[in-house]
Amino acid sequence: MSKWETVLISNLGITITGKTPSSNSPEDFGEDFMFVTPSDNLDNKIINNTERYLSKAGANKLLSKILPPNSILVSCIGSAMGKVTMNKTSCLTNQQINSIKVNLDLYDPNYIYYLLKNNYAVLRNAACGSTAVPLLNKTDFDLIPISVYSDFSTQQKIASILSALDDKIELNNKINAELEAMAKTMYDYWFVQFDFPDKKGKPYKSSGGKMVYNEELKREVPEGWEVKNLDTLASVVKGDLITEKTATPGNVKVVAGGIGFSYTNNNYNRTCNVITVSGSGANAGFVNYWREDIFASDCTTVKAENNAITFIIFQHLKDIQQLIYSQAKGSAQPHVYPSDIKSIKYFDIPKNILNKVEEMFNGINEKIGINIKQYQQLSSLRDWLLPMLMNGQVSVGNAYAYVQEALGMVAEGEVGYEVKKKM
C-alpha cells in the first residue's frame, strides 16, 4: 500500500463552522438552501433533505459559511457527536457542525469522508469530558491528528470501492421510498377514499357506491363494512422483558421504547411482518413495521394472520400516529399500553376486497424486504472493509473483488452474501 502520513484535520482543507440566522429575521428561512443541524438525519453518506432550509436572502448574509458540493460535514455536539455526511449541493449548517472544504489538490473528498467516518471514536473522544453535553469546538477539531494515505490515486481507489457499496445502498433506499409511497397511495385509494374496484371494475365511491355513516369512526364507510376493535382483527400483545445487560448480543434487533431498535439479541420472539408500537419514554406510541424477525421488548406488537391485513393496519396506525401519541399516560415516563392499541377501531375488510388487494400489497412488501436485506448485507461488508482498507489490512485489489462479488449477487437477486466468509 502507499505511504502513510499523519496530519491535522486543519491540513485536510478549510474548516468552516456554521451559524444560525437570527430568529428576528424569518425572511432568512425559505426553501433554497439546506440548513443542516445535528438533529437532521446524518446517517447516510449524502444528506439530501433537512428539517429547515434557508432563503437566498438568508444565505447571502452568510456567504462565508456556504459549503460547496462535496464538503465534509461533522456533527460536533451531543449524541450526534462524530457523525459524518457529505453534501451534493451547496448548503449551510448551524454552529454545532464543523465542515471541511477539502483541499482538492491533495485529497479526494470521498476518501476524506470515509477517513473521518472510520475515526468516529477519535472524534467523540476529543470532546469527552468538556461539558455535560459533549462539544467539539473548531480549535480542538482542527488539532485532531489523523493518518492518511498521501498517494492521491490510492485515495481514489479506496473511495471508489466503498462508494460503490454506498451507491447501491442509496439506490435501494430510494427504491424502497418509492415502493412505500406506492403502497401508501394504494392504501389511500382503497381504504380512505374507498375507490376500490366495484363489481363492474369501477371506483366504488366515485361511481356512486353506497356509503353509510359509522358512529364509532365518525365518518362514512362502504355499506356492509363492519367496524371492530383492533384486537379482534389481529393479535395485539405486549413485548417480553429484556435489558441490554440480560440480552445475548446477536443478529436480532431488540425493539423497545425508541424509534428504531435499541440493541441486539441472539433470538427472536416475533416473526417478520409485524407492527410495533413503542411502549414508554419520549417516543411512546411510535408506530413501526418490521420485515424481519425481532425481539419485542418495551412495545406492543400487532400482527394479523394475513400479512396484507397487517400491512393495511400499519398504514392506518401511521395515519392516526398523533392520536396514538396522545394516548401516552404519565408525565415523567409516558406510557402507551396494549389496552390503548386494542381499543382502536378499524374495518373488518370484506374477503372479496382483501383478495383483490392482497397480492399487490404482499408483492410490494416482498420487494421492500429484499432491498432491506441487501442493505443490511452491503452495509456489513462496507463497515468491515472500511477499517481494513484504512489500516492497510486488506489490499485494494482484494477489496475490489469482494465488492464486485457482493454487487454481482445482488444484481442476480441473491441476498446470501456474508462478510464473515471473507475474513
Q: Kindly, what is the distance between the CA atoms of the first and last residues, rounded to a whole number of angstroms?
A: 19 Å
Alpha-beta content class: alpha+beta
* Strand line-up of the largest beta sheet: 2-9-6-7-4
Could you name the CATH class of the largest domain? Alpha Beta
Which residue ranges are poorly predicted, with pLDDT under 50 across at least 5 consecutive positions? Answer: 419-423
Separate helix tally:
11
* CATH superfamily grouping of the largest domain: DNA methylase specificity domains
The total count of strands amounts to 21
How many separate domains make up the residues?
3
Q: Describe the sheet with the most strands.
A: 5 strands, mixed
The dominant shape is globular
As a percent range, the share of helical residues equals 25-40%
User: What is the arithmetic mean of pLDDT?
Assistant: 92
Fraction in beta strands: 15-25%
Q: Which architecture of the largest domain does the CATH hierarchy give at level 2?
A: Alpha-Beta Complex
Could you explain the architecture of this structure?
The chain is built from eleven helices and 21 strands. The strands form seven sheets. A five-stranded mixed sheet has the order 2-9-6-7-4. Residues 419-423 have low confidence and may be disordered. The chain is globular and about 75 Å long. With 423 residues, it is of the alpha+beta class. Helix content is 35%, strand content 21%. Helix 2 packs across helix 5 and helix 5 (152-191) runs antiparallel to helix 10 (351-390). It has three domains: 4-150, DNA methylase specificity domains (Adenine-n6-DNA-methyltransferase TaqI, Chain A, domain 2), CATH 3.90.220.20; 152-210 and 352-423, Helix Hairpins (Orthogonal Bundle), CATH 1.10.287; 226-348, Adenine-n6-DNA-methyltransferase TaqI, Chain A, domain 2, CATH 3.90.220.20.
